Amino acid sequence: MDSPIKRRLVLGFLSGWVGKFASTVIQLVQVPVFLHFWSVPVYGEWMIVSALPTYLSFSSFGFGSAAGNEMTMMVSRGDREGALRVFQSCWWLITLLCCAAILFLGVGLYFSTIADKLKLSAISEIDTKWIIFYLGVSVLLGQLEQLLQASYRSVGRYPYGSFIKSVMSLAAFACMIVPVVLGGGARVTALVFAVANIAGTLILCVLVRRDIPWIEYGWRFARVAEIKRLFGPAVAFLGFPIGNALNLPGTLLAVGYALGPTDVVIFGTARTVSRVALQMVHMMSGTFGPELSSAFGARNYELTRTLHRRACQMALLVAVVMVLTMMTFGPWFLHHWTGGHVPPSRGLLSILLLVVVVNALWATSSTLLAAINQHQKLAAYYILATGITCVLCFVLARRYGLYGAAWSLLVAEIAMNMYVVPASLKISRDTWPAFLASMAQYPPSLRPEALLRRLRCV
Fold it and tell me: Does the pLDDT value for residue 313 go beyond 50?
């Protein structure tokens, strides 16, 4: 890898950290501020109502992600006209889908009694409808942001695009806090938040046009053929949130049916702690996606192979380090985090952390498949594996308790490794012996003796 690629990877990882920091700040600040200025019932109902519009994010059917990969591969081959054709085609498709969704949302809310069905009392029926509409429009128009981010990704400026998105998220949250502090109700708060997000989308449109001159807004290059070609990869991207729904809430429901609510709390909190390590791994692997798209699009198989190896290597290293850290401090953190209400189980946490290590390899390797829009089978295998895991989780939990439920999670991870890694090796023209040997070959700057020398200097 040359210096520009290494620089982009580092900046991409740092921008990922900024995004995580922004979401953490929002989560930490939101609860005390809202509870200070609003009553508990109002905030509780706000959480319920504001969560509903997030399901509208599926309205773009994954075309933003598929377009980002395709544009990146085309630009790497010097085909900017083809990338513009993909951009304009997907822009109008997403716009039409979102407009249709807004129309159906408005009509559905007009004829429904949503507050009554949700058993809300602190927020009125009319306010509930307007909150869902405001936030729904914000979520739907925000689907265009994924395509705008794809423009920055196609020219190798994905760290900048990610950073801008994080800044805009913080700005929208800051705007939302203002009416809360000034005594505004839930409806005004939703309106301000929606306007701030829509303004952010418009600003991003202007920035993309300024920073990437060959990007044009219009329909001169839009083609129905491009939509048909991207339809399979786009819809396949929806398989991952479906699989995640089976893997996370689905297994919790299985534990609940098998053992009861008390064991759900123990299992769920232990898994949440273990997933801290998983988030670090996924942030590391996701950084390599744009570079893999570019390398494969340019038919540079040597670079594709190197990037794939380095991504898997770094993900496994991060996973092992995080697992050792969580094994050391996890039980202590779990005890203090729950105020002693959830008994920490080192055995249960150990199994869940083993799941993280096994997940690290296939989840990182699958970045190559997703980055070049060859993930249709991957999505199908993921849904199948997580569905089987839900059933197995219930069966093993009934027989062996929480340990059985934890061991069942390994089934999906092992099954995914058996499919994903060989498929990625075939695409990158790699072999098992060479791939496994590369996992032990670290650059001189990352070898233990070099790291120790740096520590001594500090």
Answer: yes
